[in-house]
Specification:
By secondary structure, the chain is of the alpha/beta class. It has a single domain, classed as HAD superfamily/HAD-like (Rossmann fold, 3-Layer(aba) Sandwich), CATH 3.40.50.1000. It has eight helices and eight strands, in the order αβββαβαβαβαβαβαα. The strands form two sheets. The protein has a six-stranded parallel beta sheet, sandwiched between helices. Strands 2-3 form a two-stranded antiparallel ribbon. Strand 4, helix 3 and strand 5 form a beta-alpha-beta unit. The longest helix has 12 residues. The two termini are about 25 Å apart. The C terminus is likely disordered.
Length: about 190
């Protein structure tokens, strides 16, 4: 693991192609829907529960994303942005960290400026070649299919905090399915 990964306090994510598989579903009425991985959701919840920040930077806007981020407790959303580098820097400022303390996870060309500005650039496995070329880490999972969860585990291992995440599930009173009723414990993602 690298020292850059261990310094990460802010996990900044693109949406289409990272949190989703890149498919945009639009029905006859013009309503957009997206498919999100529950594993990615759990990764985000674990990251936040351990005291770290999450921000989302995306060129698109939509209610499906807003609903999902609200469920996960993500407070920093920059949507409808054309300049992801500027939005990334704004997310760092809002989260109280430097760009060197942030990871950005991307998959396509519009993500390059933010990837180049962050301390720990990450590409999902199915990212385009120029994105993979600038990445310090490339996931084994494709976007929308557990890649974000994989990044969280990678970062927590680099910080020697993975066992802290696992300990959240060591309670013998934990009901089947992993859900707890207390706000102090991880929720189902």
């Amino acid at each position: 693991m690298t020292a850059a990964a261990a310094r990460v306090r802010l996990l900044c994510l693109d949406v289409d192609g990272v949190l989703t598989d890149g498919t945009i579903l639009i029905d006859d009425a013009g309503r957009e829907s997206k498919r999100f991985s529950v594993r990615d959701g759990l990764g985000i919840v674990l990251w936040r529960r351990l005291g770290f920040e999450v921000a989302v930077v995306t060129g698109r806007s939509g209610q499906a994303l807003r609903h999902r981020l609200e469920e996960l407790g993500v407070r920093h959303l920059h949507s409808g942005v054309g300049d992801k580098r500027t939005a990334f820097l704004s997310a760092c400022e809002a989260a109280g960290c430097s760009p060197a303390e942030a990871a950005f996870v991307g998959d396509d060309l519009p993500d390059l400026p933010a990837l180049r500005a962050c301390g720990y650039p990450v590409a999902v496995q199915d990212a385009v070649a120029p994105v993979r070329a600038v990445a310090a880490h490339v996931t084994a999972a494709i976007g929308g299919d557990g890649a974000v969860r994989e990044v969280v585990e990678h970062l927590l291992r680099a910080k020697d905090r993975w066992n802290d995440a696992l300990a959240m599930f060591d309670d013998p009173a934990l009901p089947a399915g992993g859900e707890r009723s207390s706000d102090e414990r991880p929720r189902s993602a």
